[in-house]
Amino acid sequence: MNWLDKLQQIDRRVIYTLLLVVLLIPMFRPLGIPLEVNMTTQKVYDLVQALDPARDVALFVMDYSPGGSPDVHPQALIVAEHLAQRGVRTIMVSFVDAGPMFAEQVLDHVSKKYDIVYGTDFVNLGYLAGMETAIKNFAEAPHTAFERDFRNNPVASMPIMAGITHITDIAFIIDFQTGDPGYNAFLKQVQGPYGVTYAAGIVTVSVPNAMPFVQSGQISGLLQGLRGAAEYEVLVGSPGAGAAKMDAQSLGHLLIIGFIIVGNVAYFLNKKKAV
Amino acid sequence: MRREVPLVITFVIGVLLIASYFLQGPILGGEYTWKTLSSDITNWGVLVSAFAVGIAAVNLTRIHGNKITNQRPGFINSIALIGTMVIFIAVGVFNKHFGTAGTRALFQNMFDYILSPLGAAMFAIIAFYVASASYRAFRARSAEATMLLIAAIIMMMASAPIGALIWSKFPVIGKWLLDVVNMAGQRGIRLGVAIGGFAASMRILLGIDRGHLGSE
Predict the structure, then answer these.
(1) Are residues B93 and B152 in the same domain?
(2) Cα separation of A56 and A47, whole Å?
(3) Residue B124 lies in a domain
(4) Could you say which residues from 84 to 123 on chain B have a Cβ atom under 8 Å away from some Cβ of chain A?
(5) Interface subset of B 64-83, CB within 8 angstroms of A
(6) Residues of A in contact with B139 (CB under 8 A)
(7) In a shared domain, residues B162 and B71
(8) Three-state SS for A207?
(9) What's the structural domain count of chain B?
(10) Statement: residue B216 has pLDDT above 80
(11) How many residue pairs from chains A and B have C-beta atoms closer than 8 A?
């Protein structure tokens, strides 16, 4: 095997090791690569900024699984922080079983930074089984969909639920998701029929699928994977989990592109040699 | 009867839900409204789904229980699965009904320090597979493969902050690929799926398509 063949068949363990090294370096020594804010992230930020804390209630949908959480959880943390910073009352609900536990993590994060009162400023309603059917059920009667919240408190007597009898009483929905149910279900059951302002935070791989709905205006704002979280952190002025990992992503992408180029150059030189 | 009854239920529920989307006010002049009807049906749906979760747990126990009993290859994994499922259910149910601050912390910690990191680790491993697979698969062997290769490199550079530092046009071209080229394809697929979905729904409602009822 000549060196050109070898360059086309680099052992996967070499690739894994180099990638690990490249991902670890910025975790310990951040490079501070500047980040340009995407328009779809800016729109989510603007929507939260436009909410009136005295009147508006936001619905914070926690529909992600542990598998996709590295991409979406940092988004949820920073948007919740922004909502708490602005004093917007926020109802958290999940249509995915892991959602309520992630909501508790978000509440824990936010309560360390802001003086929020559970049941008045924030509430974690818990998980409602039934996927798209459950979303429709919740939309039609949010006040009766849960008798008790995730912490076993009666929902009806909570100040945050006062006046919330239909999804149209919610000013803004932000839906963090990794799959089903996701924006498709919300667009069909909530945004379409009732016209409630809807934004989403999704994993990077789902972005191309969601773009037609962003362009049509049905999804009013979109956080695109980990980068979306990092951009939002820049906007809020609170660098966190997202920003810290963007340098690692940059170097990881560069390494993959480097390997692709090496493989292709070796392929063409080999082909030329053979002719 | 085993097939006819589910077909009738599917048809009636489907038609009522479609009607409740378009109609408002009382049904036949009574106190019961279309909105209440829709709400009641979706309530049943939520209840059925909750039962389905229970059935799934029973099914999982049965399948992996058999595997453990017969000591089939990989039965150790089945023991781990059943064990963790039982522990999670036990702690979760106890916490829900007799919960104290301690049990709540235990349940949350089990999620935070076991399930969540394991899920995140699985997600992270994909990066290594993707790196290795893209190095092997992205070869400019044909015009189509070259286009895919160039688009992939541009999108990788556009989505990582370092791309804009290397060449300021990477984000611009990446956005164009996403907003124009991708959008055109996605719209076509979406429209096709929507029409197909509507046709499939009608076939199920009318009892032409009976795949969901299982084999005879």
Answers:
(1) no
(2) 12
(3) no
(4) 96, 99, 104, 107-108, 111-112, 115-116, 118-120, 122-123
(5) none
(6) 263-264, 267
(7) no
(8) helix
(9) 2
(10) no
(11) 170
Cα B26 to Cα B30: distance, rounded to the nearest angstrom = 6
SS3 content of chain B, % helix, strand, coil (to 5): 85, 0, 15
pLDDT by residue (tens digit) across A158-211? 999 999 999 999 999 999 999 889 999 999 999 999 999 999 999 999 999 999
CA A247 to CA A32: how far, in whole Å?
Answer: 7
Is residue B197 a part of any domain in this protein?
yes
pLDDT in tens, B99-143: 788 888 899 999 999 999 999 899 889 889 999 999 999 899 899
> Range of B199's domain?
141-205
Residue B160 contacts residue A254 (beta carbons within 8 Å) = yes
Q: Are residues B88 and B174 in the same domain?
A: no
- Give A-chain residues touching B179 at CB under 8 angstroms: 211, 215
Is the confidence metric ipTM above 0.90 for this complex? no
Domain final residue, candidates B98, B118, B133: B98
Give domain status of residue B166, yes or no: yes
User: Which of A33, A209, A264 lies at the smallest CB-CB distance from B186?
Assistant: A209
B6-15 tens-digit pLDDT: 899 999 999 9
Let me know whether B157 and B91 are in one domain: no
Cβ of residue B203 closer than 8 Å to a chain A Cβ: no
